[in-house]
Amino acid sequence: MIASLYLHIPFCVRKCLYCDFNSHAGMEHLFAPYVEAVKAEIRRDAERFHDALISTIYFGGGTPNILAPDQLAGILDEIRRSFQVAEGAEITTEANPGVSSLQSTVSSLPRAGFNRLSLGVQSFNDDELRLLGRIHTVDEAIRAFDDAREAGFGNISIDLMYGIPGQALESWRHTLHQALDLAPEHVSLYSLTVEEGTPFHAMQVEGRLTLPGDEIEADMYEEAIRTLTSAGFEHYEISNFARPGFRCRHNITYWRNEPYFGFGAGATSCLPLLPGLGEGLGMRATNVPSPEEYIHRIEAGQDTKACEERLTGKPAMGETMFLGLRMLQGVNIESFARRHGVLPQEVFLEEIARLTERGLIEQADGAIRLTRRGLLLANDVFAEFV
C-alpha cells in the first residue's frame, strides 16, 4: 500500500481570531510528552501496516515550528525507523512567522530531511495581519521566507488569505505581487470563512465585523487566477497554484481519495481495511482532539480514536467525486470505474445532469470537471455529492 502520512501539532503561540482548527495556546508543558506520544502511536500503527510505503509526510497544525527543531526531527526519525519511506518522498512542515525560534528551526530542518516548507503568511498588509490576530509583521514574514531559502529549502509554499474584513481589492493585489516578488514555488489561497465558536463569529453576531461580500471576494479570486497564471503558475486545484513540477503531492493524496495515516490529537486516517475484512471497503478514523486526553490514552495503552466510520457504497463514491472535482483536471471517468466498478454517470445521473445544465461542470478529455463558472460556485457542486 502506498500512503501518505500526516502529523498534527496542536500548539500555537496565540490563537488567531478566525481559527477553528484543533490548536491550543499555553500548553508548553505538554510539548515533550506529546512528542513521545506521537512517536508511540507511529510505532503502534506501523506494526499493523508494516508493508505501507510512505510517499509524502506532512507536519501541520497549529504551529509545528513552536516545537524545538530536535523534537520535529525526532518525530521524522521515528517515521523512518517504523515505516518504509519512499526515496524522494515529499516531506513538508508548516511554519508560522513571528515564532522566536523560526530562524534556528528552518536552518536545521533540511538537514533533518524536510524538503518542503509551507509558510503561513496570510497577508502582506500589517493592518490586516493585526486584524486577523496574527503574531507576525510583514517584515517578519519576508525575513522568514529569506531564512528558509538561505537554509536550503528549494520548495516553499506561501499561504494567503482574501476576504479579510475591510480588505480592498487593491490591498489584495499588493499581497499577490509581494508574494510573487519572493518567488515561491507554490501559493495556496484561502477565502476567509467565519466559523461558529471563533472570536470573529462573535464579532459578526454583534455587528462588529464587516466582510467584503461575495461579489468582491469573487473579484479577488479571479484577480488571483489572472495574476498567478500570468506569472507562470499552474492553477491545478481550486485554491492552489504551483510552478511546473511543484504541485503539493501530499494534498493530491487527499483530493484523489487515496490512503493516508494521521498521527496526533484530532488527526484523521483513511485506510483500506485489513485483508479479509471486506473487498473494496475503507475505514476513516479520527483521534480524540484533546492533547491531554490523547497523551493519557497513549500512555495508558488505550485506543486513541474518537470515532470511526466505514466508507462504502454511494457515500464513498460521492467522496471520490467531490474531492476529485477540487482539481482542475477533474475526476477521471476510467479511474472512477476501476475503483468503484461503475461509471460515475450511472451513479450520479441526475446530479451530473443538473450541474451540467447550470454550466458548473463539463465532460472533456475523459474526465468530469468544473467549468470556470463552477470554480466560483464550487460549494454548490460539492453539495450534490455529499
Structural overview:
- This protein has 386 residues and is of the alpha/beta class.
- The chain folds into 2 domains: 2-253, TIM Barrel, CATH 3.20.20.70; 314-383, Arc Repressor Mutant, subunit A (Orthogonal Bundle), CATH 1.10.10.
- The protein has 16 helices and 17 strands.
- It has helices spanning 31-48, 69-82, 102-112, 126-132, 138-151, 169-182, 199-205, 214-230, 249-255, 291-299, 313-324, 333-340, 344-347, 349-357, 372-376, 378-383, and strands spanning 2-9, 11-12, 24-25, 53-61, 84-95, 116-122, 156-162, 186-191, 234-237, 240-242, 260-263, 268-272, 282-287, 305-311, 331-332, 361-364, 367-370.
- The strands form 4 sheets. The chain has a 9-stranded mixed sheet, sandwiched between helices.
- The longest helix is centred in the N-terminal third of the chain and has 18 residues, at 31-48.
- The chain is globular and about 55 Å long.
